[in-house]
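User: My instructor asked us to take a sequence, write out its structure as C-alpha cells, and then describe one feature of it. I'm not sure where to start. Here is the sequence I was given:
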Amino acid sequence: MKIIFSLLLLLSALSGCANTGKTTLYDELGGKQAIASVVDNFIHEIEFNETLFRYFAESDIARFREKMNEHLCVLAKGPCEYTGDTMEQVHAGMNITEADFNLGVDLFIQAMNKAKIPHPVQNKLLAKMVPTRKEIIYL
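Assistant: Let's start with the prediction itself. The C-alpha cells for your sequence are:
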C-alpha cells in the first residue's frame, strides 16, 4: 500500500513538472499586450500614410482596434473569439488593389518591428494572415 501511495505521489509530482512544449503563436507573440501594441502601431502607421489612410478615413477606429485585436488573437490561437464581420463584409466596396494590400502588409511588418516581435514569429503570423488576402482585395 505504501509503495502504491509513493508511486502515485511521485507521478503526481512529475506530471506537474511536465512541459508539453506546445506553445502557441499567441504565446510566442507575447500575448494580449504584444498584440495590442502591434495593432496600435499599425493604426499609427496607417494614420501617417496617405495611400492607406483613405481606406480608413471614415472608420470607427475604436471598433477597428477591437476587432483587429480579436482577429490577430484568433489567428494566433489565443484565448479569444472574433466577434466582427467577415473579411469580405468589412472590405466589400473598398476595391483594395494588390499594390495597396502589399503596402498594408509592409506597414503591418513595420508595426510588428516597432513592437519588437522577432522576425521568425512575424513570419508565422503573416503565414496565418495570407489566406485572408483573397477576402480583402478587389472586393
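For the description part of your assignment, you could build on this observation: The chain has eight helices and no strands. Try explaining in your own words what that tells you about the chain.
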